[in-house]
Design brief:
Blueprint lengths: L1 E4 L3 E8 L4 H11 L5 E7 L5 H4 L2 H8 L6 E4 L5 H11 L16
Parallel strand pairs: 2-3, 3-4
Antiparallel strand pairs: 1-2
Length: 104
């Protein structure tokens, strides 16, 4: 699901990105080519031994989207959250959990 926030752009919501966050953002960009991508909120499905190997590539491939806000949730995993924070900084990455509220 994506929401167009006036003055910001698209915020893409993903419950658990089994398709991959990069693929989800690619699809959003193709679907709404004239609207900038502003944020990504949801589980990035990068926790657990099998998925953690994808963290470096996922972080690298997220860069070209230039999203302003990344709000990783449940299945992102602490290692991926740490990698996102290191790559994009605290101004761009805010972990999401039950009860989190975001204002745009």
């Amino acid at each position: 699901m994506a929401v167009h926030v006036r003055g910001k752009g698209l915020i893409v919501f993903s419950s658990c990105s089994h398709a991959g966050a990069v693929n989800v953002l690619t699809h959003a960009r193709e679907t709404f080519p004239d609207v900038p991508l502003y944020g990504l909120l949801g589980g990035l499905h990068l926790s657990g031994a099998a998925m953690e190997r994808l963290i470096p590539d996922t972080v690298a491939h997220l860069r070209p989207f230039r999203v302003q806000q990344i709000m990783p949730a449940h299945c992102t995993g602490w290692r991926a959250v740490w990698a996102l924070l290191n790559a994009f900084g605290e101004a761009a990455v805010t972990p999401s959990a039950v009860g989190s509220r975001f204002t745009f």
